[in-house]
Fold these 2 entries.
Entry 1:
Amino acid sequence: MTDRSGFDAFVRARGPALARTAYLLTGDHHLAEDLVQAALVQAAKHWERIDTSPEAYVRRTMYHQNISWWRGRKLAETSLESYDAPVPATDPTIRLTLEQALRRLTPRQRTVLVLRYFEDLTEVQTAAELGISSGAVKSMSRDALRRLRTLAPELADLVGADT
Amino acid sequence: MTTRPDRDLRDAFHRVADSTSPLPIDDDLWQRGHTARRRGQAFAVAAVLALVVSVGGVATLVTGTDREARTASTEVVEGGAVPSSIVDIPDDLAVTTDLAVGQGSAAFISSSGDPVVITATDGLPHRLDLPGWDQAPIALALSSDGRTIAYQDASAESGTYLTTVDLETGRSVRVFSDDSQRLLVNELSWSPDGRWLAWVATTQDGLLALLGRVDTSEGRPRQVRLPSGAVDVAVADDGSALVGLGGGGLLMADPDRGAVSVFSGPGVGAGAFSPDGRHVALRSSATQTSYTWDTDADELLEHPFPEDTLAAVDVRPLGWMDDQRQVLLAQDLRGGYSGELVVTTPTVDDTSTWRRSVGRVDRDIADSLTIAVDLLPDLDGTSSQQLTYDFDGPERDISWIIGLGVAAAIAVLMGLRWLWRRFG
């Protein structure tokens, strides 16, 4: 199997899963599409030199790229304080409420939650992926969940009081 | 049955993710990745080249020929030159015992009281170990051709001795001896051709002043009495001498006769004879004009400085470049007595010259400075002509060059990094 065919096979096999993660990370379909493609281009660029699993490489690239993009966009974004009001529960489903609330987290907070509760990584593994300390992961995770409870009180049972 | 909240949250995350409609994934990702890779490699090469050029440029500036030009020890000027900057010696400059240092361009008494000669071809200062040199300020003079220095030799406990040293051979000759008394030599002066040496001296009690002259090629020095208060002297190629009196006035003394007053008036003193013996550049104080004595016409000539140039300067003639152009040391009273060399003519006319900042002189050594005026080049008529030579260059602060180079390298790398991230 050539490098090119191996890469194509990887994209076909893992592309959908990567896209799901990207959507959770960004909360936006277009951004998720851009994020996945940017990470896959990076993987193609260094394909011969990726010494871990390609999926781990692409996922890590997405985590960092998402935070990096946010840094580039944050000056144009509205401050978080204006989003602290509870989200109107116009949609009865929890899924939409969670989606709306997730969009109001910072990318770092959202990324930590995705890694902890979607990728099922431990605090230590999450810290290693993001290049931060375990304490920072714990702190960001706690803050993110508190914000979710504030933004969407109806998620209290889902998020838990002390999680 | 109750569920753990984190379990519920995981399920919720998965439900959100699963609800996502499939995202389109371009099929040219491989090609884009490899294009970016080749571009990245090109940027890497460019970055290395930029770094090499930046570092190399800085290294060239710091260690290249310019650095050699700043290192006087590596610079040799064919025929010799007067330094554009004449400064005091450092305290730790070693003493030179071999007096055959070569032709000098300037001589002075350092602030530490040592005799110093700057050699003409390399601009290096030499702290000379002159036999009988007394640390007390005594007389020292360099001939116009830079080949001989004269000084008062105080090796004996009493008596007055003047010695010359050939700087090319190191040979010393005692040209004047007076075992009877220790005179205070006020000034030593060479004739333009370096043949005659003249001095004015006073007795220890200050009551008697003497004018001495010696033809150094033949010996036979002689002294004549002067009115008290003689402070400076100039001697011509024929042995004629002009003496300045501290209280004002000029005396002319032919070689074999006593001195007669030729000018009465304050403000001027003897400086240097022109090669043809017709003019004597004069000292003056706090003036905006240079003065010259015309020996043929017995007339005081004036050359006012151009407007907005020098004001209230002390002028001491150092010699003549030719029969018309004199070299003056001007010390600005308002500028802390720092000195600059000025080239000018006796009067203002269609062919007159006035050039300032020909060289600069450290104020601490200006009073004792003599230079080899023969080393100054003939004027070529352009104002840009350099009459003195920058042996060691200005003391450049090269830290800004290094800083600029490093900043340039960083800027280049940052720019390439930005491009890399933007297009890579």
Entry 2:
Amino acid sequence: MKINTVLAFALAGYATTAVAQAQQITGAGATFPAPVYSKWAESAKPATGIELNYQAIGSGGGQNQILNRTVDFGASDAPMDAAKLASGNILQFPAVMGAVVVIVNIPGVEMDALKLPGELLADIYAGTISKWNDPKLVEANRGVTLPNLAIAPVYRADGSGTSFVYTSYLSAVSADWKSKVGAATSVKWPAGAGAKGNDGVAATVRNTKGSIGYVENAYATQNKLITVQLRNKARQFVKPTAAAFNAAASAGNWRDAKNFAVDLIDQAGDTSWPIVSATFILLPKDPKDPGRSANVMKFFDWAFTNGAATAQALEYIPLPGAVQDAVRSAWHTEIKNPDGKPVF
Amino acid sequence: MSATLSSHSTLPGAIKNLNVAKALGRRRSRASTVVKALCVLATLIGLALLASILLTLIVRGFGGIGLGVFTEVTKPPGSNGGLLNAIVGSLIQTVIGVAIGTPVGLLVGTYLAEYARGSTLGNAVRFVSDVLLSAPSILIGLFIYQLVVAPFGGFSGIAGCIALAVIVIPIVVRTTEDMLSLIPVAMREAAMALGAPKWKMIVQVCYRAAKDGIVTGVLLAVARVAGETAPLLFTSLGNLNWSLSLTKPMASLPVTIYQYAGSAFDDWVQLAWVGALLITFGVLAINILARVVLRGGK
């Protein structure tokens, strides 16, 4: 009886929603941009009539789902392998960017007071610097009182795009790190303890005296954690601010990046934050349902034009205008109907 | 212990035996006390874990419960979203999943108990069903992904329902077979003696006698699938928006919890706690209901 009622309810619902939700598009992938995509979806719905359903199943999942064509678009933090993009006939474009920040819990050390040159950060994670009052750290931080306290590095125990970006930075600034550990979504960490997810690292650092960790910027600001200054390529110490993130994003060499897979780590510029990365959207070049694909592009077109403030409010970095235009022209030239005409 | 015994060993026979008996008695009661204490301790640890889970859920989740949780769909951080689509999606998928899985499970259980007792095929079916019972649910999700999602080119609510149904089947098979096996042979013989055909004996005598147990099995299956995340991740995927369509991705509470719990934003984390509270107490209520139904029948 009850089952019949619910079935009838569900079927009736199907009949009505099939008409009302003709504009629904589905995307899946990276966890990192999920909040901003869902915020864009909320604002874009009244403006464009497109209802986006984005599900954060992880970057690997996003790549697989678009290869299997089970979603309208995939999303990935790490750029997809060029060979896979070609064999899967997929266009990759950046949607938004994010920064990774370093957080610490040292008694007496205030917000953005500690200055960490990249090579010392690598030494800390390598375990060769193990006390906060190590002469090298004291030398770099005149005016900050550093306690005689053991350093507890915290890393991501799960495979993670954040770890990839962070270890890419450590590899860029330390030849030792590059040769001994390298850059990957999960590496063999020489020292420290693991925690699951950005939230796990944030919580562990908050609860452990003497600890240091790395998280996406949103987790540091939302949890009011103590961040540190890092030294960029121009050998200037910078605080993790929106301006510093934007500077790094603009400094990136977008023009020469194949498949938009730009490297934003350790960019030039006096004010650039050194650990910035883009997150990508994956869209089939030969959509089986061109109408839905056109809606995906319409959605991101809307988001590029109108979504910058929303992105910044949620601690993301919007794409520079020139990059947006390059993405728009790639849509036009790369994504075709079966008859060869541009979809969007 | 042995020192005490040997100090009394110079006493005459009868008293000596009595003392030995007393010493043995003391030793046994001491051993019994220790074992009892260990049992009580183990029970307390189990209960404390359950209590701390429930308490944490209430403390962290109760503050977030408001009308909005039940009237608003999931929204981006800072937009006062609720869990309506997730709650309704979970209800739909659980109900349809159980509705698909129960008849199959019931018939297989009946076959095992009534038609295939001791037969090779019956034993093979029972073995496979038991393996399925303990199979990791993510495998069932991937199985349905390959079977339904990939060929039909998209995630859908119905794929989620089918994945849940596959989990329901072995649970219902096991309880149905166990319950039917408990029915005395005399009862079956009585029905047969009155001239009832076998199907009539099963439907009108055995099912009726085993009803409470079978219903309990179904309720336990409901409780099991209501909290499943893994099989839904790659079948019904989840949906941010209000959708009752079975051919489109569908939201569910466990998947929403999974995605919100690790978020940077407090309102999403709060909703994850509320969702966990709702599922846990929903499942607890179903379990209690199952006990009451079972007890009420006896």
